[in-house]
Amino acid sequence: MGVGGDSGDGGGIRRRGCSCSKDDFLPEESFQSWGSYLKAIKETPFRLKDRILTRSSDKSELVEIKARSQHEMKKTLNWWDLIWFGMGAVIGAGIFVLTGLEAKQEAGPAVILSYVISGVSAMLSVFCYTEFAVEIPVAGGSFAYLRVELGDFMAFIAAGNILLENVIGSAAVARSWTSYFATLCNHKPNEFRITASSLSEEYSHLDPIAVVVIALICLIAVLSTKGSSRLNYVASIVHVVVILFIIVAGLAKADTKNYEDFNPYGPRGIFKASAVLFFAYLGFDAVATMAEETKNPGRDIPIGLVGSMSITTVAYCLLAVTLCLMVPYQNIDPDAPFSVAFEDVGMGWAKYLVAAGALKGMTSVLLVGAVGQARYLTHIARTHMMPPWLAHVNEKTGTPVNATVVMMAATAIIAFFTKLEILSNLLSISTLFIFMLVALALIVRRYYVSGETTQADQIKLIVCLIVILGSSVATSIYWGVSDGWIGYTISAPIWFLGTLGLWLLVPQARRPKLWGVPLVPWLPSASIAINIFLLGSIDRASFERFAAWTGFILVYYFFFGLHASYDTAKEAEKQQGNVVELKRAEEGVEQYSM
User: Which region holds residue 478: left if phi is over 0, alpha if psi is between -120 and 50, else beta?
Assistant: First the structure.
């Protein structure tokens, strides 16, 4: 395990012609020789315990971890940029594709209720994200928040799923881009894809157009964050105009008879659709990752996040009502529902405008996704859980070029092979799991401060959290396996008592400095319950894929990420100790000289 290049000053100068060295990927002590690596492997249980129990701090994330990128990200964004980034990130493939799919197969016209349920869950998560983003304005988003409150190990589990969420989300949007582009060209989506008969049906429709679109988005994202903001701003304005046209023109062709059979699939269909349609609200977490580049996080982030999510939820409900009033839910086209709906009501010319608007919206989603997911990976790499080469911020552009290229390459590979239905279900599991953890972390942040919270209060906090989580899981399992209602009369009151006990018996140990979630602990506790409940509506195959991915990232963590992050943390502690000793020595010299 030698290091490429020699350097007299230990700076690791690269050999001529090499763009990077081994130290860009595995510079830690555990990987300097096979002997060191085997020693680290033997210490895995001890190191794992250390990483589970160790917590980062706000100061560490804001100063020390951020400094590992060598160059600062440029603070160029304000609340106006964040609102448009939020709308650009969220309004895309979810509404323009999944609305038709879920209305036709799962919920019928009651799909609007599915959107309301998903919207409430998403808004609760937005509140939790906003408090964290204001208090810890760094590029790591939920990864950084979980490191501070739940520790390195839980943060890594979330990190793996954050990366999965971002890659799958963008891949799903890229494949939807192809579907609407085909509609714009008067073709079926699969006519623009290559069929590989040797592969299974779920992975046999290869999508080269999605790959080209992703490559172009990647190029824009690495050049400039502000430039990406301007492009997103223009695309989003066009998108909003098209959405207004769909609502006004579509309602003009409304037929109330299409709403006579409002809920053909029953309550289970509504919630099952809601779990999948949660995908339509994804993207706001990408806005939270831009906190590091925001001029005034305390003002701009709450306005940007809450404002964009409020506008999006109203738009989604209106679009869902419009679609189901235009055509019977049985006749909705699953690939390009709005475009085909206008054709069905005699406005064939309008399908081109709708398709163009959908393409604009999905382009915005891809762009904001590329910007956000690269910042997640950058901050994860700053901790050395991923190779530190990915944490580098380009001095000229002020953007994380390496992380952007790697994430978009992974996205292109997934988009090339995988069908939208598989992507949307797997994506919803990953996202609901992360949002549940962020809500849990917010409760921990408010009610526990190391060295201040008494042991008695710690025990009460743990008991209340176990009751909240246990009752939420029980409700979700009961929903997934039973059509009855008796179980809810037990699990719901238990959840209420757990939250009430936390509210009455445990004093808050920390108050937010600038902006805080209202109604704590009720709001984050409700977020935990709803997110876990929606997980009970997702199919078994998606959970199996989720388990396989979690197993894969754990293997990586135990063999690489754990040891790299452990060495990095201990080296940082050693340096801090040296600084403290130096200050003490300087103070001693000053006192002696006096």
Answer: alpha
